[in-house]
Specification:
The complex is a heterodimer. Chain A has seven helices and ten strands. Chain A is an alpha/beta fold. Classes of the chains: A alpha/beta, B alpha+beta. At the A-B interface, helix 2 of A face helix 1, helix 9, helix 10 and helix 12 of B.
């Protein structure tokens, strides 16, 4: 597994008015590395993840993702960059309620010029891997929490991302289902070689990671 | 733009979709029905001229002042109406030579008085089949139009009232005529609705003395937009004549028609503007409710343009559906309004009846509103509904452009 840096943040600062949420953070993640960002609620983990994934811009500092400085990019450039390079898994799944499971998985591909059949084939393939082949046409409302999160993982993988960003991916799940989701993430890391940056406040979950980064009051402490 | 996503979004939120479609539909329906009725009103007013194929009628009223409400005590036999004195040949030639005049036809209108009352007689120029009262040939119900000397056509109701019919021989102005046909006056044709129609030559022979002539000239213009210009030309070149056009009916309807025209425009704008405001407000409110979804779309790689295209697609589908619904409702309303009848007053100078006549039927005709939805109105409605969608989309685009995925996702 290569340890070449795929993602790095340098001197990152994020302020909301006078409130400094991320304080001079620098870190890097190697390709295929599984890193956990841990810390108490409100310590700035999610904001740092948003900055590193290109969802949000830092007040100052620089983010390099796969060799590209994304700090200077426009909103639309960032959107395209996210679509082609990263995947997201959220605590609250964030599925579109009106779309079926396979359509939710294919959502990032909707604006891409591609045959509808090809979209469906790729989405179905990923859902099969998530053992949801029998749920292709179901709406999110008809899925359990674990199934929803597996759909969200499949969506995050549809563009073969270089880095997967997971924000408390088991936070809304019972422990058994959470374990199953963690198992999937571990497999993605070991078998697919996807770099993962996972935010969690549960120390137990972080044991699955190659490396743990701890945050406190907006700063990386270890 | 993903059509499946658009369809599912609209179907899933069917209540919201229905409210939007109904809002646009009501706006378009009001726009269509108000405009259709307004156009029908104008159409009804132009009917008297349209039925004659003419744009302008020229006559020469008697110069001396008369009290037209009183019948002269000594009036008996054939005479020309006060407002229809014979026109000199040179005046007729001048009228025909005016720029913009495509054709002329003439007729001779006469009144015949006797102890029992009076009747109107119209001598028709049979050589101009598409212009003037000769067009009443198209309204023959029984028999035919006069082809030779001594033949007459009677208006159906007049004939019935006087117990005569086709084949009977009658005396008109002391001369003997055979009734060869009966006709029925078409709706809104009061300026040609005489009791008796004769060939122009025959009518001229009824004039007292050795005079010949005509007293009504019908002008057809090359283009209706030349109406004002030609009327001005006539006033300058031919003195002492009265010039009447469908405008005269409009002026006679006065306030009603003008208010109707202005009101229809204002009401259309208000109706449509109100609907537009409602739709934009509803769609923007919906957008706030959908901000989570927009945050997700942007997070997974949709650009602002991709999001806008999706919203435009949804707005256009709703707008077009609303437009079609509005057209249907508007047509239905207009169809029902088409059953209404309106009275059209005739300007006195082209009213064939004497002003003192008790029977003033011809002075005011009741016609059904000829309501129809033109292709132009259909196009305008569709364009307006699409404009509604486009304007809503523009505002939604502005709003979504400001939405940052991180801000939205932080709230989820």
């Amino acid at each position: 597994m290569s340890k070449e840096t795929i993602l790095s943040g340098t001197d990152l600062i994020k302020r909301y008015g006078s409130l400094e949420v991320v304080r001079n953070v620098s870190l890097s993640i190697g390709a295929g590395e599984f890193v956990c960002l841990v810390g108490k609620s409100g310590c700035g983990k999610t904001t740092l993840l948003s900055i590193l994934s290109g969802l949000e811009k830092p007040t100052s500092g620089q983010v390099m993702l796969d060799g590209k400085n994304i700090t200077e990019a426009t909103e639309d450039e960032l959107a395209l960059f996210r679509r082609d390079n990263v995947g997201f898994i959220f605590q609250s799944f964030n599925l579109i309620p009106t779309l079926s499971a396979w359509e939710n998985v294919a959502l990032p591909l909707f604006p891409v010029k591609m045959a509808g059949d090809e979209r469906r084939r790729r989405a179905s393939e990923l859902l099969e891997k998530m053992e949801l082949g029998h749920r292709l046409e179901h709406l999110p409302a008809a899925l359990s929490g674990g199934e929803k999160q597996r759909v969200a993982i499949a969506r995050a993988l549809i563009n073969k991302p270089k880095v997967l960003f997971a924000d408390e991916p088991t936070g809304n799940l019972d422990s058994a289902t959470g374990d199953a989701i963690m198992e999937i993430l571990k497999n993605l890391h070991t078998e697919e070689g996807v770099a993962i940056l996972m935010v969690t406040h549960e120390v137990e979950l972080s044991k699955a990671a190659d490396r743990i980064i701890r945050m406190h009051d907006g700063e990386v402490i270890a | 733009m993903n059509y499946s996503y658009i369809y599912k979004e609209l179907i899933h939120h069917r209540h919201r979709t229905l409210v939007n479609i109904l809002g646009i539909g009501v706006g378009i329906a009001l726009f269509v029905s108000i405009n259709a009725v307004s156009t029908a009103y104008q159409e009804a007013i132009s009917l008297p001229f349209k039925n004659l194929g003419a744009d302008i009628v020229v006559q020469r009223p008697e110069k001396r002042a008369i009290d037209s409400s009183q019948a002269p005590a000594a009036m008996r036999g054939i005479r020309v109406p006060f407002s229809n004195q014979l026109l000199p040949e040179e005046d007729i030639a001048k009228l025909a030579s005016i720029d913009g005049v495509a054709g002329t036809a003439s007729s001779l209108l006469l009144w015949e008085f006797d102890k029992g009352g009076f009747r109107t007689i119209m001598g028709v120029d049979l050589l101009k089949p598409g212009l003037g009262p000769v067009k009443v040939k198209e309204w023959i119900r029984d028999g035919r139009f006069p082809q030779k000397e001594g033949e007459a056509v009677f208006e159906k109701h007049y004939a019935k009232f006087h117990h005569v019919t086709a084949g009977d021989t009658v005396t008109i102005g002391g001369r003997s005529f055979t009734i060869v046909g009966l006709l029925e006056i078409r709706e809104g044709s009061q300026i040609a609705s005489a009791n008796i129609y004769l060939a122009l030559d025959d009518a001229q022979k009824l004039l007292p003395g050795d005079v010949r002539g005509v007293n009504v000239i019908y002008l057809r213009l090359q283009n209706p937009s030349l109406l004002g210009k030609v009327k001005t030309e006539i006033a300058g070149q031919v003195k002492g004549v009265s010039v009447t056009s469908s405008d005269s009916f409009l002026e006679l309807m006065g306030g009603v028609s003008k208010i109707s025209e202005q009101f229809s425009m204002l009401a259309s704008v208000i109706a449509f503007g109100g609907a537009l405001f409602l739709i934009i407000k509803t769609m923007l409110t919906n957008l706030v409710a959908r901000s989570n979804e927009i945050g997700i779309l942007k997070a997974v790689g949709w650009t602002g343009k991709d999001v806008r295209k999706q919203l435009i697609g949804e707005a256009l589908v709703q707008s077009l559906a609303g437009g079609v619904l509005g057209l249907f409702i508007g047509y239905s309303i207009s169809y029902l309004i088409g059953f209404l009848e309106i009275p059209i007053a005739t300007p006195w100078e082209i009213n064939l009846m004497p002003a003192f006549a008790k029977d003033t039927e011809a002075a005011s005709k009741v016609v059904r509103l000829p309501v129809s939805i033109s292709a132009g109105l259909i196009m305008a409605s569709i364009v307006l509904s699409v404009v509604t969608g486009a304007i809503s989309s523009y505002f939604m685009g502005m709003r979504t452009g400001k939405m940052k995925p991180a801000d939205i996702l932080r709230r989820l």
